[in-house]
Amino acid sequence: MTANIGVISYSTAAAAYFFLFLLLLSGWRGRAPGALLALASVVCALWAVAVAYPLVSGHHAGALGGVLEIARNAAWCAFLLALLGVSRHDLALRSGDVRVMAAGLVLLYVLMIAATPIFSGGSLAVAGAPDYLAGIVGREVMAVIGMVLVEQLYRNAHPEQRWGIKFLCLGVGGMFAYDFYLYSDAMLFKRVDADLWAARGFVNAGIVPLIAVSAARNPKWSLDISVSRRILFHSSALLGAGMYLVVMSAAGYYIRYFGGKWGGVLQVGFLFGALTLLLGMLFSGTLRAWLKVFLSKHFFSYKYDYREEWLRFTRTLSEGEPGVRLRERSIQAIAELVESPAGALWLAQESGVFERQAHWNMPAAGGAEPPGSPFGRFLENRQWVVNLDEYRAEPEIYDGLELPAWLMAIPRAWLVVPLILHEQLLGFVVLAHSRGQIGLNWEVSDLLKTAGRQAASYLAQLEAAKALLVARQFESFNRMSAFVVHDLKNLVSQLSLLLSNAEKHKHNPDFQQDMIGTIEHSVEKMKRLLLQLRSGQSLDKPAPLRLDEVVGKAVEAKSGVRPTPALEIADAGLSVLAHRERLERVIGHLIQNAIEATPPDGRVVARLAKREKFAIVEIADTGSGMSGAFIRDRLFKPFESTKASGMGIGTYESREYVRELGGSIDVESQEARGTILRVALPLCASDRSTEAVVTG
After folding, report:
1. Tell me: domain 306-463, CATH 3.90.180.10, correct?
2. How many degrees, rounded to 5, is the angle at CA 287 between CA 361 and CA 244?
3. Segments making up each domain of the chain, as ranges
4. Fold of the domain built from segment(s) 543-695
5. What is the mean pLDDT of residues 131-147?
6. How many angstroms separate the CA atoms of 375 and 369, rounded?
7. Torsions phi, psi of 671, nearest 5?
8. Is residue 677 within a helix (H) or strand (E), and if so which, with residue range?
9. d(Cα 432, Cα 363) in Å, to the nearest integer?
10. Which residues contact 469 (CB under 8 A, 6 or more apart)?
């Protein structure tokens, strides 16, 4: 029975060390400590095989098992000496001490290997064990030397270095300590204890995970064992679930075996309850968080897989519709970094007050922080992540900072993460206690501060987009107001002209009738302009219009001024889709500009013709004309005008409305020769179809 257990024990050790050897070999980067660690692993695997095989066959281990055990001890001592030699500048030991120790160990192991074949035979208490005279004392000495080397390595390492080697020292030191106990017992009782010998394989296999953890924590060994955290998490969960089911099955079998008549019923009920408990544990957020923290703490040199964390953080911030629930997603993205289940967000308002703007699973959070408060200045100047638990225990760490009462009153509040943008405090996030009991060290703090800066940029972009939307709404309103004011100015000009002629023609019935009609028309138009300003859009709908009627009405409205514009229609009956009043205003404005630029004895002509799929309204004058630079830089620029009372938006409004209809305005002008403006407007579908029939 003991032999069978020994076979399983040493076979397990052989498999564990061989697997470790493959991991180390795949991560080796050519450095001596890594090579020696891989060598020690493969020698341990061969030694375990050499001990297990004779137990299966029932024969003694002979010289091979003894030589490989000595080689195993020598490999581990060489690895420890290499660590001492590589780190001798950081240790109290001198390089000469290391060389003397290495030379003494080499001599000892050469003597041991030479003596083993001579004294390996004879009567052995346990198959595979060395006899008392040949090797027990020597192996006892090797165990002591190994423990001394482990003790020297750990004692002389700096405190910050011990984090990386403590599991190695625990594992290798434990292996040598077990050998010391095994051979001390053999020296005392003159025989090797069978149970201790059989369990030795399990003991050696048990130190493999400890060695792997230390190898992963020491990049200087060039043993960067790159295991995906996600794969390790799921594998650990699967392994734990499997072990749990095996233990529960064994317990169920025990209940069935000793339960008598009720054994089968109790077994079924027990297994169902165990399976339900397992499913509950697998879906437990707290357990998952604890497992992630445990694996990160004991199997990786850093707590986080930064690539995975940043991909998840960015995905959380950017998912969903743009700008929708971004504040809540920002809280969630930061909280998930520390397995926090809840949080709330405070942002600075225009007044400078920090007010709660959103919460995620933390509805009870409330309060506001005034501008320039000590708490706000501390977050902005120090940019620290404030641990409220640490503050309650040791407030002096935070230089006498007094946290606001509303913050301390939030249930389960744990961390305050500042949101810094351009070195200014945009806001802060308050997180609830983690489900995984994560400690706030420098790594967690740096990650949270970086995530806070990233979230601050997203939130600032959201606020800028909202401000831009408001600005555009004001811009639209201001543009509409400017156009309305421009039309009101034209109406005021008409009424002023009417008023100036009233004293001269007030007794003329025809003038009185025309004055009443003009005033009525002006009042009606002003009402429509006010309604248009209030609604933000034109009141009438676009409809097909006879363009000759629109141009004719615009020319007729200017018949009382000098020079009087003329009308030439080459193609009658052309229709365009437009707003009647706006199109009349555009044509009338362009004609008015031509009249004002032309002397009384000059000439202004409005022509209407068709060119392909467009109606062309051409307004020509013999006025002062314009330079090319003025046309290019100032003609269509809003709020640019050469008139003393002009607003500079009439021409701009005309071009924008023509473009809205799908047309264009072209200008030809020479100084002192005159100007030609061509307004091209797309024809209605009916005119296009008629043209197609005629040309066909």
Report:
1. no
2. 150
3. 2-226, 231-283, 306-463, 543-695
4. Heat Shock Protein 90 (3.30.565)
5. 72
6. 8
7. -65, 135
8. strand 674-682
9. 12
10. none
Q: pLDDT tens-digit profile of 560-589?
A: 778 989 999 998 889 999 988 888 888 988
- pTM for the model stands at 0.40
Instruction: Give 120: exposed, middle or buried? Use CB within 10 Å, 0-12, 13-18, 19+.
Output: buried
Radius of gyration of the chain (CA): 46
Domains 2-226 and 306-463 share a fold: no
In b/e form, how buried is each residue of 216-234, taking b as 16+ CB within 10 angstroms?
Answer: bbbeebbbebeeebeebbe
Contact criterion met (CB below 8 Å) for 561 and 588: no
Burial class (CB in 10 A: 0-12, 13-18, 19+), 381: exposed
- 677 — phi, psi (to 5°)? -110, 125
CA distances from 664 to 321, 538, 614, 654, 655 (A): 37, 21, 10, 10, 7
Task: Answer yes or no: is pLDDT of 428 > 70.
Answer: yes
Q: Which CATH superfamily is domain 2-226 in?
A: Rhodopsin 7-helix transmembrane proteins (1.20.1070.10)
What backbone phi and psi angles, to 5 degrees, belong to 614? -125, 150
- Provide the β-strand partners of residue 545: 576
102 is written with which tokens?
Answer: 């290495």
Residue type, 506: K
183 and 136 Cβ atoms separated by less than 8 Å: yes
Distance (Å, rounded) from C-alpha 508 to C-alpha 401? 88
Distance CA 570, CA 572 (A): 7
- Residue of 182, 81, 206, 79 lying closest to 132 (CA atoms): 182
